[in-house]
Structure formats: structure tokens, C-alpha cells
Amino acid sequence: MNSRRDHRSNRAALFDGIEEGGIRASAYSSHEIHEHDNDLAIEGLQDRVNILKRLTGDIHEEVESHSRMLDRMGNDMDSSRGILSGTMDRFKMVFETKSNRRMATLVASFVALFLLIYYLTK
Predict the structure, then answer these.
(1) Exposed / middle / buried, residue 17 (Cβ in 10 Å: 0-12, 13-18, 19+)
(2) Is residue 44 part of a domain?
(3) What CA–CA distance (Å, rounded) separates 94 from 83?
(4) Is the pTM here over 0.90, yes or no?
(5) Higher model confidence: residue 57 or residue 9?
(6) Transmembrane segments in this chain: where (predicted)?
(7) How far is 85 from 1, CA to CA, in rounded Å?
(8) How many domains does the chain have?
């Protein structure tokens, strides 16, 4: 007898939402509403994920571009360092001998004198 009651209650639960002439609002339709809300939320999350994916792609391209620019800048700095090193070696050679040192002092004096005269005449 207990089995019949369980069977009847299961059957009643199964046909609970059906009335004459239509289906009344039941827990099943609220379940559909929640499912629809979940679908909308999932679509919103997918849109956000797509936006983040594009954003990270743009960031990656920007980082690669800056990395290439820094590499070129580093190479330019290395070549500049080589040029300055050669110039410093030449200056050292000029100032190593006394006659060259005197010549450099004489040239520097003429340049200073020229600048002084130019300043006074202006």
C-alpha cells in the first residue's frame, strides 16, 4: 500500500502542472527562466572572454614591438660606444706626447680667444 501511495505521489508530481486547457506556471517554468538567465550570463562571459583575448593579443603585439625597438636601441648604443671609444683613444694619443699637448693647448687658446673676440664684438 505504501508503494501505491509513492507511485500516486510520483504520478501526481509528474502531472502537477497540467490543468484543463493548458499548463499553469510551475517550478518547471521557473527552472526554464533560471536556465535562460544562465544562458544570458554565459553569453556575457563569452563576450568578456573574447574582449580579454583581443586585449591580451594587442598587449602581446605591443610588447613584441617594444622589444624589437629596445633591441635596435641597444645595437645603436653599442655602435655609439665603439665610436666614442675610438675617439677617446685618439685623444689619448694626442695628449701622450709633449709636442702634441702643446699643440692642443695652442689650438684651445686660439678657439677661446676667437670666442672672446666674437662675444665682445657682438
Answers:
(1) middle
(2) yes
(3) 17
(4) no
(5) 57
(6) 103-121
(7) 105
(8) 1
